[in-house]
Amino acid sequence: MSSDALPVYFVSHGGGPWPWMLTQTDGMYDQLAASLRAMPAQIGQVPKAVLMVSAHWEESQFTVMSNPHPPMIYDYSGFPAHTYQIQYPAPGEPALAQHVAELIGSAGLQSRLDAQRGYDHGMYSPLVVVYPKADVAGVQLSLKAGLDPLEHLALGRALAPLRREGVLIVGSGLSYHNLRALGPAGRAPSAAFDAWLQGALIGTDATRRADALAHWRAAPGAHQSHPREEHLLPLMVAAGAAGDDVATRVYHQNDFFGSVTVSSFMFKPA
Fold first, then answer.
1. Helix, strand or coil, per DSSP, at residue 35
2. Is the pLDDT score of 28 beyond 70?
């Protein structure tokens, strides 16, 4: 990818509406918040829009949010009452949504527009830290049911031209997502899977990355880290859009929820 292309990110987006609960989380999110606050300087310019692939939206075909004024979707439970009133009023961008759908179609993949869809917490929880003024337009793009790694890698490749058009592509998930094993039971599998991710992404080219990610289930700790892989699939999209760009780990924590290892990655031209 040429040097004028924006970077691509996969971010581990944390739990629910955490940015609105920092006084209640005992510093657990300090490292993640710092990594997200660092993104504008890494990007080097204000993007025209953010295209976010969130783990929290799946459809029967790739679906692009075209709502010009996206409402909030409070897709979590058991959190304090005030977190069901929060707002992140970044505007939508219907013209970009249409363009995204056209790029997907040009790659031989099916897609549709959704003019009603709003922002889920995979979008607004990280973005409120990156762009707290909500002054950068946002468009969400769904995962496709079936969660086929190859289809999501192909989706990323189809979206790659957006990087030269000032659009920031972000995959929003978690590098470890097993809610039943967030404590000590997650320590060993999360560390093993995270180490595998480093080897799969860092110092590799597009072909090697795609092959590794397509066979992610064979990785150490894979099943324990992702009993269901929806939080890993946004990484496939990011890696597809990245091509041969250099991967850097921009966030790493081995005591998330006390025991779990999680990471985020940036892909950028050398």
1. helix
2. yes
Burial class (CB in 10 A: 0-12, 13-18, 19+), 270: exposed
DSSP character at residue 236 = H
Nearest in space to 130 (alpha carbons), one of 34, 44, 57: 34
CA distances in angstroms from 217 to 8, 69, 197, 224, listed in the order given: 24, 38, 12, 10
Confidence (pLDDT) at 1? 66
Radius of gyration of the chain (CA): 17
Closest CA to 262 of 68, 80, 35, 105: 35
Answer yes or no: are the C-beta atoms of 56 and 75 closer than 8 Å: yes
133 token code pair:
């003024």
The residue written with tokens 């050398």 in the block is 270
Please state which CATH class domain 8-268 belongs to: alpha beta
- Dist. CA 204–CA 211, nearest whole Å: 11
Spans of all domains in the chain:
8-268
**Torsion over CA: 193, 159, 31, 87 (sign):** negative
Kindly report whether the global pTM for this prediction surpasses the value 0.85.
Answer: yes
Per-residue model confidence as pLDDT tens digits over 93-139? 999 999 999 999 999 999 999 999 999 999 999 999 999 999 999 99
Helices 233-242 and 206-214 meet at what angle, rounded to 10?
Answer: 160
Mean pLDDT score, 23-47? 95
Task: Note the Cα 55 to chain centre separation in Å.
Answer: 7
